Amino acid sequence: MAYIIENFVVEDNENMVKLLYDRGYGTIDKTHRLVLSPLEALYLLENKRIEVSSPSGKKVDFATLMKKFAAKEPDIDIRYAVYSDLRSKGYIVKTGYGFGTSLRVYEKGIRPNEGRSHILTEVMSDGKRISLLELQRLVRAAQLTRKNLMLAIVREDKKIKYFKVASAQL
């Protein structure tokens, strides 16, 4: 059973580590454990691919895990909606923090350890305003890393609209 450590979920069962890592989930740490991001852990738990326990050893359900992660990441619910939607469409999705965006998306069939992501995705709730300067920063980050930029707008009913952004000029 996977367990919570701070704001991550860790799996140390050797068979599960290999299975999940080969399917594009998590990163392997120095002790050969699989460290799952909050989005990955939520997705795997919701789809009954892992079970998660609290530090006290008690089994944790999806709502409890979401609430725990939301305490540190208030927008995790909308980011999770996009993550889950893209994963269900067959894409490998990773967090995009190092790139200044919400998510990185890999081409279908390419695993993170075999290639590079091709899309940076910024997730926003419907009605959220974004300045042209912020949009320009996102486009520049995508251009510098040779990736496409996609905006994912999440409505209140969790329906998602995707927009490809090619440029933003003042």
Overview in brief:
The chain is an alpha+beta fold.
* Extended strand count: 11
- The structural domain count equals 2
Order of secondary-structure elements: EEHEEHEEHHEEEHEE
Structural class of the secondary elements?
alpha+beta
Largest sheet: 6 strands, mixed
CATH class of the largest domain: Alpha Beta
Q: What strand order characterises the main sheet?
A: 3-4-2-1-5-6
Q: Could you tell me how far the N terminus lies from the C terminus, measured between alpha carbons in angstroms?
A: 51 Å
Low-confidence stretches: none
Features:
170 residues; alpha+beta; MutS, DNA mismatch repair protein, domain I; Trna Endonuclease, Chain: A, domain 1; 2 domains; 6-stranded mixed β-sheet; 5-stranded mixed β-sheet; 11 strands; 32% helix; globular
Description:
- This protein is an alpha+beta fold and 170 residues long.
- It folds into 2 domains: 2-72, MutS, DNA mismatch repair protein, domain I (3-Layer(aba) Sandwich), CATH 3.40.1170.20; 76-165, Trna Endonuclease, Chain: A, domain 1 (3-Layer(aba) Sandwich), CATH 3.40.1350.
- The protein is 32% helix and 26% strand.
- The chain has 5 helices and 11 strands; from the N terminus they run E-E-H-E-E-H-E-E-H-H-E-E-E-H-E-E.
- It has helices at 14-22, 38-46, 62-72, 76-88, 132-144, and strands at 2-5, 8-11, 27-28, 34-36, 52-53, 59-60, 92-95, 103-106, 119-125, 148-154, 160-165.
- The N and C termini lie far apart (51 Å).
- The mean pLDDT is 92.
